[in-house]
Structures are given as C-alpha cells and as structure tokens.
Amino acid sequence: MGSLSCLSRCLSWKRIMAVFFLPLALSGLIPHIQYGEYMLSKTGRPQSRYNWSHLTPLKLKNRSVGLGIANTGGKAAHFTLEGHKFLIFGGSIHYFRVPREYWRDRLLKLKACGFNTLTTYIPWNLHEPERGKFDFSGNLDLEAFVLMAAEIGLWVILRPGPYICSEIDLGGLPSWLLQNPNLQLRTTNKDFVRAVDTYFNHLIPRMVPLQYHQGGPVIAVQVENEYGSFNKDKSYMAYLKEALLERGIVELLLTSDSEDKVVNGSIQGELAAVNLRFLRKNSFLQLRQLQSNKPILIMEYWIGWFDRWGYRHSVTHVKEVEHTVSAFIKYELSFNAYMFHGGTNFGFMNGASYIQKHVGVVTSYDYDAVLTEAGDYTEKYFKLRHLFGSVSAKPLPSSPHLTPKTVYPAVRPSLYLPLWDALQYLDEAVKSVIPINMENLPINNGSGQSFGFILYETSICSGGILYAEAHDVAQVFVNNIIIGFLSDKVQKMRIPKFKGCQLLRILVENQGRISYSWRIQEEKKGLVGSVSINGISLKNFTIYPLEMKKSFFERLRFATWKPGPESYLGPAFYKGILKAGSSPVDTFLSLPGWNCGFVFVNGHNLGRYWKIGPQESLYLPGVWLHPEDNEIILFEKIRRGLSIRSRGKPKLKLF
Ligand code: GLA
C-alpha cells in the first residue's frame, strides 16, 4: 500500500468518522445510529463479566450441543456454547507461518491476551505439493496444532478453503492445477472438483476427530473464503458444503465475506460472517437482510495489513484498534482478529497482488498484528489484554516471558559458486523444442515446478529484438554476461550483435502467484508462450528448474566452491558460517549491499530479501540454529554485498 494512498485513506472523512465518531455513536451519545438496522444493545454495556472458565476444551466434557445460536425474540441473537451464552473472541495464527517449536508460545500468548478461540486457514498447496502426494508432518501437522490449542484452553475455527487467499501463493491452491487448460479454479468444473475431492478425502478425515462433538476443540468450519467477491459459479458453495458434510463435518458452518459481498458469498441456511476494518453504519446491512435472527460474527477484523515489495509498510494505529475492539466488546459482537500473529512467509510461500502490474508480498507476514513476526508483544497486545481483562470474571493467565533475541557476529561469506557452475547439481534438466512454463515442466511426477527460479538456455546465432513473456522478472544473458531484464510488463529488449553462435540464457524468478481475483487462473510462471528474435521463434531449449530444495543444497556440498571475490555481478551462491554460541536464540539478518535473493540457514529457506524494501531484514528463528557453527547460503541474483549482519530487531525501510 503506497504512502500517499495510506495517508489519504487514513485522512478521508469516512475514516475519521469511523475511528472517532462511530465509537461515540455506539456509546449512546448519538442514540439512533444503527448498524444496518441491527439495534445494538441499548445500554451499550455488556450485562456482566463473562465467566467461561468451565467452557474450555479440556474442562467441558458434556458435548451435546456445540456452538449454537440463540434467537431471543426481539433482542439481539447471540451464540451459545453447550447452551451457555458465548462470544467468539478469536485470533488468527497460521501454523504454517510459525516454526513448530514456537506454536505453544504463540498459543499461550493468544490465551493470555484474553482470546478464547484460535482460527487458522489450511493451505492446500503446502499439504499437497505434488498431485497425490500429501504432507501433514512437521510444520504442517495441523492436528498437533489444533490439539495443542485445545490443551491450552482455546476453541478452534478451521478454514480449510480449498481457496484461502491469505497472501499465500495462488491463494493456497496448488500450482499444478494450472497445468490443465480446461480446469476452472473455484468452480464446479469437473477437473477442479475431482482435485478438491481427492484433497478433501485426505484432509477431512483428519479434521473430523478434532470436532467438538467428538471431544475436540473445533466449534465451527468455514466454507471457502470470500467467495462473494469471485462468485463465478452459483453451485460451487453448495457443492463444498456437501463435500464437508458427507465426509463427517457436523459443526456449525459459516461463510466469510467483505461487507458488500455477504449475500453473494452465503450459503442458504448457514451462518454468514463479515470481514472489515472499520465499523460503519452499513457494515451489517447485508447481514441483516440475510439473517436478522442470527448473531454477528466479524470473521476477519483487519487489525493490521500485509506489505508488498516496493510499497510503504502498512500500519494500523493502536488507538484505532482499541476503539474498534472496545465497540465490539461493548456491543457483544463476536470477532476474530486477523491476524493475532502473522508469522513469516518462509521459503517461496508468499503470494502477490496485481496493481497495474504483478507485485509480490514480502517475506514477513508481521501484518502489524497483535504479536510481531517474531512473536513479541506489541502495544496492541497490552491494550487488548486490558479490554478483555475488564470483561472477564476471572483474571487472565499471565503473559509468557519474552522470547530472547540477540545480535551475532557478522558473517562474511568466504566462498561462492556462480549459478552456471551449480547447474550440474540439479536433479534434472529438461530438453524441449519450445520453452515450457514452470507448471507444465515434466518433473515432480508430473506436477511441474511450483516455486523458485527457472533457467532457459538455447543457442542463438544473431542479435536483434528479443521477445519473451517472462513471469515475473527475468535476467537475460549472452553466455555469462548480463544484457538486460524482462518482466510481465517488459517483453522486448535488444540483443546486441555478436560473432558466431552463443548461449542465450534467460533466468526467470517466480515472485509469488497472485492470491486474489480472477487473475489466479492465469498465474503461470517462467516463460509463457514462445520466445523469438526478430520474429523468428527460438527452439531447442535446455530448461533448469531451480526449486532450491534441500536435496539440491546437500549436493552443492560436493561442488567446487571458490574463494569469494570482493565483487561479482551475476547470479551466484555465497556460503559462510554464522557463529551462534552455545544456546542460539532468535535474530534478524540484514543484507547491506546485496540486491535480491534468498537466504538458506542450515537448509531452512528464510525467504526473499530485496533492497527495495520495505522489509530490510529476515527473521531467523533461534530454533533453526545449531549451537556454534551454522551454514548460511545466499542465492543472490545480481550483486554481492560483503557481509550478512545480525540484528536484535527487524529493520524496515522508511519511504
Ligand atoms: C481477505 C482474505 C484474507 C486476507 C485478507 C487480507 O479478507 O479473506 O485471506 O487475504 O483479506 O490480508
């Protein structure tokens, strides 16, 4: 989000009204304001302090009713849990964005802040990285995460998609779906349905025993995500509902949409919830039209926002959050803070937006949330804890200790390996007459390449105007010499004259697939379509999928790394040792002088760095460090810097 747009957004009269006057309106000073004709509690105060201490997953043994709705005839409807009046105070934490070793810490902080419910998306693309190959282990162990939440005393709402948005690559849909030109995402198209059914056959049986009625903490399940904004197929939501029911989901189902799309996204008979940042007069207008007899649930209260490369860091002020949450509490509105703790888009997880061009989401998913990216407390945490504490009959649990951070000695990578020398260590190279985009490469058991970089090589015997459609950005080389750049917006460049026949190399970086809008259907990466010079198509390519998997780095150990030069232009790997002492803790890495690339520590991909900001450091969780020596490998696309610095705090660029 750009600085100016943020400024104008923050200063627009609607915002000022929303932030400063609506709370006044709510508090009764302007008595006749209604939310889309929902008359909120007249007194403007919760009737009592809530005592839900017996209503926690481990304590509540009698499980006959679950999350229900009481329509009290005339008065506002409210949720009940096992018959007791209940408000959902939810917070989002995504297990896949937080190192597993820190799940407990983050969940304890959610509970200690006063929340009673955890919400999480479930990302299909990470759980089924190759068609038919499922992964629910390690950091993707959804069941362990949910059971840990239960043990800590939190209820859970699951959001299994299959599309989730969430600023993740392709909104959580696996990129191999894009191979099939007849498959239409987010519809009842038979090929899409077949893929969803197979995934659900693996996922849903894992969710079923976690449900409330089976003694677990899951009180509700969300169907898809903001389908009202996409809404291409009227039968799709009904199909998904049925897909959940027939596999044994029995808890309350809900849909979740922005204020003006609630009706479009809803399923007849199921609870519709709303996503918003500000309480406005019309916030609940559509909800009211649809279900005046049901309680309000704000499924995503945007307590912060995400960042994109090259755009100003987003900030949502604590005062605004305090005002809005006070209103939620005062008027007994159930809500879910998106995000309580955002975590990190480790590896190649990040998605992208389209703002006249492709713009990648940054590695950090700090989100200006209640906890920071590294799990530290913010002012929002203390304000919310105070608000929840003021309506809780029992004292809130004490807040866990801070997670230590430290500064390690700088690392000067002493060895380097130009990309060209590393190619022989790849799993495989593909020979093809024409260039092939990532998703359609015949690798990974037919599932193609999802993430990373891809290099195309072919021989050319003349210069001229090169035409290629590269997604998202590409460096063009003749042999080892860089001669220009291409992107989704720049498809032509001149190749100067040269003698004889030479090697044309095009290195394309996938910067994350768009996660929102109809564009998801078109998100193929690498070179898409033919490549030509002066209108004549080039042929006979060797294609190197640079997926940067652990196995590749293991093989790179046997490469002949060279002592690092003071400066090098071009894509290369750089290796150094981070000395972490006897008990490593969290730190942040900053990369002065480096341009753009990825950092791998002991084989963990920390994500993309890019000098354009706003993110200027990468979070390195202490749990991924070994005592003493740790291997750091950088893949830098353009220009080397001299050192990698460690910091105690993240660094942001101020635009
Ligand atoms: C929407 C989506 C979320 C997320 C937020 C923005 O509400 O439902 O997945 O993308 O926007 O962070």
Automatic annotation (TrEMBL):
InterPro entries: B-gal_1-like, BetaGal1-like_ABD1, BetaGal_gal-bd, Galactose-bd-like_sf, GH, Gly_Hdrlase_35_cat, Glyco_hydro_35_CS, Glycoside_Hdrlase_35. The keyword Hydrolase applies. GO terms for molecular function: beta-galactosidase activity. Residues 448-547 form the Beta-galactosidase 1-like first all-beta domain. It catalyses: Hydrolysis of terminal non-reducing beta-D-galactose residues in beta-D-galactosides. The active site is at E226, E300. SUPFAM superfamilies: (Trans)glycosidases (SSF51445), Galactose-binding domain-like (SSF49785). GO terms for biological process: carbohydrate metabolic process. PROSITE patterns: GLYCOSYL_HYDROL_F35. It holds the Pfam family BetaGal_gal-bd. Residues 79-389 form the Glycoside hydrolase 35 catalytic domain. Its EC number is 3.2.1.23. Keywords: Glycosidase, Hydrolase. Gene3D superfamilies: Galactose-binding domain-like, Glycosidases. The keyword Hydrolase applies. Residues 571-630 form the Beta-galactosidase galactose-binding domain. Belongs to the glycosyl hydrolase 35 family. This is Beta-galactosidase. It comes from Dipodomys ordii (Ord's kangaroo rat). The lineage of its organism: Eukaryota, Metazoa, Chordata, Craniata, Vertebrata.
